[in-house]
Amino acid sequence: MSKYDILIVGGGPIGLACGIAAKKAGLSFVIVEKGCLVNSLYNYPSNMTFFSTSERLEIGGIPFMSLNNKPNRSEALEYYRRVTQIYSLDIRLFEAVNKIEKKGDAEFVVTTSRDVYAASNIVVSTGFYDIPVMLNVPGEDLEKVRHYYKDPHYYAFQKVVVIGAQNSAIDAALETWRKGADVTMVVMEPQIGERVKYWVRPDIINRIEEGSIKAYFNSTLLEIREREIDIQTPDGPLTFANDFVIAMTGYRPNFNMLKDFGIALSADGKFYPQYNPDTMETNNKGLYLAGVVCGGMDTHKWFIENSRDHAEKIVDHISKKKNKAGI
């Protein structure tokens, strides 16, 4: 069984940043990722453009060169792949962490789908993109319902309902409409979200105002059937024909996994994990959090650009512990 100073759970940008920081500090480490490299980014819509500039997405001091002011998904995948190669990061892909057990105060045993590891410290950097927030309405389990949106061509000439009013929903509505879909938006809020990318928000508002895309605000989905759906609007219930429902209702961290790892979560419905913001160490000594997973249900609190420093905080704290112990 291999023994490491740090085992990092999650091979996204922040997990990679933690590996880079560990390597620079001379600490032994391994990154374990259940999917492909930067799996969440890979599953973003094919045509997605980041809100951030390329400089704010950089890790490890490696420049992120983009053809545009705002980089796209394809450029990000290439960049993080290149960073991984430059630093020769030890990353095990398509290997899921099944269990973390603590042996005494200074060692964890980690069982994955392929191996068993020992580590003095664990960093959980798993993001939030794996579990969609469900609508909990009849028919949500039908094949026509998608909580992930990839490419607009699939929906050409179909009757599409998009649920939501934030960036992912707006991108899905505009892109599928431009491929010939008949698009209707169902929005719980009274307007398009204020956080929508500033160069996209006027576009969707104009398409709604001109009638190209239909939108029902202050409305909710009631039931989904094979060829139609029911919604509740301020003017009463409506039923209309439908081929696909793209439910862009958001995503959440795997809270059950965090609890299984011994991390305390708040009881206020937000499920904020308990950790020290100066060191990122949780209530479970030797177990750290990094990136979006720190925010509980507030998944818009942390991004790549404002959580890159988590890696330095964690590695600095672990290095000091190791030096103090004289290891």
Topology:
Layout: E1 2-9, H1 13-24, E2 29-32, H2 39-42, H3 73-86, E3 91-92, E4 97-102, E5 108-112, E6 116-124, E7 131-132, E8 145-146, E9 159-163, H4 167-178, E10 182-186, H5 201-209, E11 214-216, E12 220-224, E13 228-233, E14 236-241, E15 244-247, E16 251-252, H6 255-260, E17 287-289, H7 304-307, H8 309-325
Parallel strand pairs: 1-2, 1-6, 2-3, 6-17, 8-15, 9-10, 9-15, 10-11
Antiparallel strand pairs: 4-5, 5-6, 7-16, 12-13, 13-14
What are the low-pLDDT stretches, counting only 5+ consecutive residues below 50?
none
Query: What integer is the average pLDDT?
Result: 94
- Rg over C-alpha atoms, rounded to the nearest angstrom: 22 Å
Approximate strand percentage: 15-25%
Level-1 CATH class name of the largest domain: Alpha Beta
Strand tally is 17
- Enter the CATH topology name of the largest domain: FAD/NAD(P)-binding domain
Helical percent range?
10-25%
User: H/E order of the elements?
Assistant: EHEHHEEEEEEEHEHEEEEEEHEHH
